[in-house]
Structure formats: C-alpha cells, structure tokens
Amino acid sequence: MKTLETYLTDAERAGVIDHRLRMQRGPDGKIRFYIHPVDVDGETLDFEVQGNSLHEVFELAAGEVVEFDGLATKADIDALSDKVDGLMALIPAQDRRGP
Description:
Layout: H1 4-13, E1 19-25, E2 31-37, E3 45-50, E4 53-56, H2 74-90
Antiparallel strand pairs: 1-2, 2-3, 3-4
C-alpha cells in the first residue's frame, strides 16, 4: 500500500508535479477519489474520504488473488490442487464420486 505522501514524493522525483483528482461516489454512497499524473503514464491511487482522513480503496477484478494473513495464496491453492490430483489418480475411476 502506497501512501498519498509517498505517491506525491515519487512523482516529484520523476518530475511530475501536476495531478488530476477525480471525485466519485462509492456503491455505499461514500465519497471517493482517485489521483493520477496529468498527461503522463503513472500510478493511480484510489481513496475513500472520512472526515479529514483518507483510506485506500481496494477493488479486485474477478478471479484476482490477493494475499492476506490467514488466507491461502494462489501458490498454496495450486500446490493443494496438485496434491488432490495426485490422490485422485490413486482411486480407481469406477470408485470416484463427482466429476
């Protein structure tokens, strides 16, 4: 997670001082905005506004895997899937249930 301060500092180091800020309403009606450098390629950060505080907004595309403490990573799921496939190969086809 990058802070707004780090975003601006990194952009300044790259010679970018002009940014576009676009306000929008989230699905819950809360005020959000995103910030992006003007007329150059660069990062875009999304924030939700609560009073004078900013909270980064995380939006995931369908099928995207994100790692959080206590949850499985894509590598964990792939490894488990390989183990299940290996075990399924040991069971005779006529004894298997499901697809």
